[in-house]
Amino acid sequence: LNDYFVGAMKGAILDINSSARVVDITHEIPPQAIEVAAFNLLAVYKTFGAGTIHVAVVDPGVGSARRPIVISAGGQFFVGPDNGIFSYVLDRESDARVYHVTNDLYFLKPTSATFHGRDVFAPIAAALSTGVSPRELGDGIDDPVRLKSLAPERLKHGKLGGRLIHIDRFGNCITNFTRNELPDKLIRQGARLNIKGKVVSEFREFFAGESKARLFALWGSAGFLEIVAPNRSAAKLLKAKRGDKILLELRYGIRVVSAHRAVG
Amino acid sequence: LNDYFVGAMKGAILDINSSARVVDITHEIPPQAIEVAAFNLLAVYKTFGAGTIHVAVVDPGVGSARRPIVISAGGQFFVGPDNGIFSYVLDRESDARVYHVTNDLYFLKPTSATFHGRDVFAPIAAALSTGVSPRELGDGIDDPVRLKSLAPERLKHGKLGGRLIHIDRFGNCITNFTRNELPDKLIRQGARLNIKGKVVSEFREFFAGESKARLFALWGSAGFLEIVAPNRSAAKLLKAKRGDKILLELRYGIRVVSAHRAVG
Amino acid sequence: LNDYFVGAMKGAILDINSSARVVDITHEIPPQAIEVAAFNLLAVYKTFGAGTIHVAVVDPGVGSARRPIVISAGGQFFVGPDNGIFSYVLDRESDARVYHVTNDLYFLKPTSATFHGRDVFAPIAAALSTGVSPRELGDGIDDPVRLKSLAPERLKHGKLGGRLIHIDRFGNCITNFTRNELPDKLIRQGARLNIKGKVVSEFREFFAGESKARLFALWGSAGFLEIVAPNRSAAKLLKAKRGDKILLELRYGIRVVSAHRAVG
Question: Which residues of chain C lie closer than 8 angstroms to B169, CB-CB?
C-alpha cells in the first residue's frame, strides 16, 4: 500500500472492464509468505458470490518466474502464479480445473519482466470478467504446485497431529483442526490440545464471559479451531509461531486405545 | 488490513447487493478503542450523502457479545454492536432512532460466534441497502450504550473544562471545543488554552505562515479546536495523550468574574 | 488510513457523483514527501484509461496554502495543490494545460482552512467527472511549481549523472535512467553503474535465476532502471537513500573518449 503496485493492478483491470467491482482482501502478506496468502484466501473466498474472480500475487518481483495459471473452482475463478497460493482451494473444491495461461492476447504490452501483477494477472482477471473462457487462455494442466495439505495427521492411540497455520493480528492462534476431525460430540466427550508444553482443555463458544482459564479453544470464523486468550495475545502467552506442532487428544480415542491394550 | 476480515465483510455485502458502493473509512482503530472509532465516525459521517449506511465494528472478536443495533439518524443508517460506537452521532442527531436487531433472517448462516462483522453487521447493512426497513429487523430501544459526552464542562469563573479527544497521525491534538462554546467573537476578545502546564494563546486560520509561537490553535476539519505545531507534532511537544484535560479561559469570562467580585 | 481523511474525500466525491469509481493509489506517502508522491503518480497514471481523474494531496494540513490546480494532460485530469506533485507528468505530456481553480462553486461549504482534500480537491474531481470543463473552474496558467527534472545530466567523457528517485518496499533502488538514455544496444556494448563506491555491471531481464552478483540492474515496471539484490534489500546493501548520486559509464562513451584523447 505504500507503493503504486496495487493501484496499478486496479487501473489495469478497470481499463479493460470499467464496470468491474474490485475488492481488496489484503496487501499485507509478508514477502514470499505463500502459506499466509493461501490461508487468507481459503478463509475468505466462500464469502464472495459465484462468478467472483480472485487475483492473488505474492511478492510481485519474485512470483513472475512462475507460470501464470487460472483455476475454475466452485463457481469462481482464481488467477495468479503457479506457486501454491491456490493450494488450499484446490484441496477443498473437487471440481477444480487448472489452466496454464499461454495466450498473451490480453497481457498489457509491453509486458514487463518485473510486474506481472499489473501486466499479466490483472488483465487476465479483467478478461475473465468480460466473459472470456479459461480455455481460450491456455491448456488444462494437472500438476499445479501444491503446498503441504492442511489435513491433520492421524497418529497412533487415536491422537491427531496438527499445526499452527496462522496467527492473526489479535494473536489468536489458528490451528488446522476443523469440525471434520472434531465434531461437537467428541468435544463434549472430552478433548485437549497440547502446544509448546501447555495444555488447553477448555472449549468455548464465545470470546466474552468469565473464565479462570488463561487459554481456551474456540471455532474461528474461517472454520478452524483457534487457541485464544481473553483480551490478550495467545501467541505471546504461548511464545508460538506459525508452523508450531499441536497434539489433539480425544478422551474417546484414549479410552478405545486402553481397551485395545487390555485386549492385547 | 493484514488479515482477511475486511475483505470478508465486503464479500458478504456484495453477495447480497452486488451494486452496493463500499467505502473504507479506517481499519486502523486500535483494538477496543471505542472512543477513537466514535470520533472518526463523527468526523466523517456528514460528508457522505443521505441514504449512506455506516458499518462500524471495533475488535470483531470482543464486540460480538453486544446486542446488534441499527440507528436511523439524519437520513443515514448506522449498523454495529451496542458498545457506544455511535454515541457521538446520537448526541448530534435529534431524530435518531435505535433498533435492537433480533431478526436473523439476513444473517450469514451458519452464524459464527467470533466474526459478527461478516455474519451479522455486513448482511444487515446490505439488507438495509436493498430497502429493508429497520423496523423489520427488530424493536426500537431507548437505552443504547452511551460514551461520556463530548460537551465541555462549564466551570466557575466562566472557564470551560475540555479534554483531548483525538491525536491524529500528524500529532495534531483535537479538543472537544466547538464553535458553540467558542464563537469567533469570543476568540477576538481573547481566549487561551491551558494544557499540561503550557499556555496556547494564538488562534489561527491556517497551518501555513510565519509565527514565533511553537503551538497555536485552529479549527480542524471535524469542527473541533485543534492544538497544532507548524511542521511538528504538537502531541510530542506537549507530551500529550488522548484524555488529557484542557482548560479554556475567556477574557470575557474573567472580566465578568472580576466585576462580580468587586460587587461582592 | 488510520484517520478519517481518506474516507472523507471519498464521501465528498460520491456525494456529488454517486456513480464515480474511486481507486486508491497510496496513502502512505511520508508527510511532505512531494517527490515520492510525484514518482508514484508518474509510475501509475498511464495504467489508467482515458478520462481518469487523479487526485493527489500531500500532507492535507500543509498543502492547503498552495493554489489549487487542475491539469488536463494525455487524456486525463489531475487535481491537487500547486506544489510540484504533478511535475513529472508535466515533463512527459506535451499537451498538458494547467488551470488555477478560482471558481469555488463546487467547493464543500463551509470550506475548512485545514482539509482542502475533502473540501476543495475531491469536489473539483467529482465536478470534472460529471462533465464540468477545467475552463469553467479557472484560468490557464503557465507557471506551475516544478520539481527538479528526472532527466539525467550529461557529463563529460560520455558519462551520465543520475540519482536514486525512489526506494520501494522491497528495497529496490529506482534510478532516473530510462531506455531513452540507455537503449538495449548500449547495454549490450557494456555499461556500468557507480553508486556509493560500488560498481554494478550486470544487467538482467528477471529477478529470478542464479547469479554470483550480489547486485544487478534491471528495468523496473515504471520504466526506470532499478538496482536490485535477489531476495534482499539493495538499499540496505548499499546503505542507499533517495537522492543518492549514480554515475553511468557506457563503454561506448569511454571508447569515444579514449579516441578523442588520442587525437588530442
Answer: 2-3
Q: What is the DSSP letter of A261?
A: H
Cell triple for C222: 515504471
Q: Which of A180, A190, A177 lies closest to A250 in space, CA to CA? A: A190
Contact B8 A44 (CB under 8 A): yes
φ and ψ at A38, to 5 degrees? -60, -40
Please report which confidence band the pLDDT of residue C221 belongs to, taking 50, 70 and 90 as the band edges: confident
Q: How many CB pairs under 8 A join B and C?
A: 91
pLDDT digits (tens, 9 = 90+) for C130-142: 999 999 999 999 9
| Among A4, A22, A115, beta carbon nearest to C25 | A4
Spatial contact of B101 and B162, defined as CB atoms under 8 Å apart: no
C-alpha dist (Å) from residue B41 to B32, B127, C4, C80, C199: 15, 21, 8, 25, 53
Q: Which residue in A213, A227, A218, A217 sits closest to A174, CA to CA?
A: A227
Averaged pLDDT, B72-84: 95
Residue in B with minimal Cα distance to A228: B61
- List the single residue in C4, C14, C115 with the smallest CB-CB distance to B40: C4
Three-state DSSP at C88 gives helix
Is residue C52 within 8 A of residue C25, CB to CB? The reply is no
Q: A114–C208: do the CB atoms touch at under 8 Å?
A: no
CA distances from A73 to A52, A53, A100, A134, B13 (A): 11, 10, 15, 12, 22
Q: Show the cell assigned to A71.
A: 483455476
- Contact predicate C97/C73, CB 8 Å: yes
pLDDT at A258: 36
User: pLDDT below 50 — which residues of chain A?
Assistant: 60-64, 254-264
> String of b and e for A99-109 (b: at least 16 CB within 10 Å)?
bbbeebebbbe
| Cα gap A5→C43, rounded to integer Å | 9
Give, rounded to a whole angstrom, the gap between the first and last alpha carbons of chain C: 62
Report how far residue B57's alpha carbon sits from residue B61's, in angstroms, rounded to the nearest whole number.
10
Instruction: Check CB contact of A65 with chain C, cutoff 8 Å.
Output: yes
B222: contact with C, CB 8 A cutoff: yes
Mean pLDDT score of chain C, rounded to an integer? 86
Characterize the bridge pairing of strands B53-55 and B216-219: unpaired
CA–CA gap between residue B99 and residue B70 (Å, rounded):
5
CB atoms within 10 A of CB C75: 12
Query: What is the rounded CA–CA span in Å between residue B7 and residue B11?
Result: 6
Cβ atoms of residues A230 and B59 within 8 Å: no
- Encode C123-132: b = buried (16+ Cβ within 10 Å), e = exposed: bbbbbbbeeb
Interface contacts A/B by beta carbons within 8 Å:
91
Q: Is the pTM of this model over 0.90?
A: no
Neighbours of C30 (CB within 10 A): 10
- The residue-averaged pLDDT of C29-34 equals 74
Label the pairing between strands C203-204 and C216-219. Answer: parallel
What per-residue confidence (pLDDT) applies to A162?
96
Strand B225-228, strand B216-219: pairing: antiparallel
Amino acid at A12: A
- Cβ atoms < 10 Å from Cβ of C176: 23
The band of C262, judged by pLDDT with boundaries at 50, 70 and 90, is: very low
Collect all residues with Cβ–Cβ distance below 8 Å to A251 and sequence separation of at least 6: A189, A190, A191
Distance from CA of C258 to the nearest CA of A (A): 35
Q: Cα separation of B143 and B91, whole Å? A: 13
* Residue with cell string 547469479: C211
Tens digits of per-residue pLDDT, C86-144? 999 999 999 999 999 999 999 999 888 788 899 999 999 999 999 999 999 999 999 99
pLDDT higher than 80, residue B159: yes
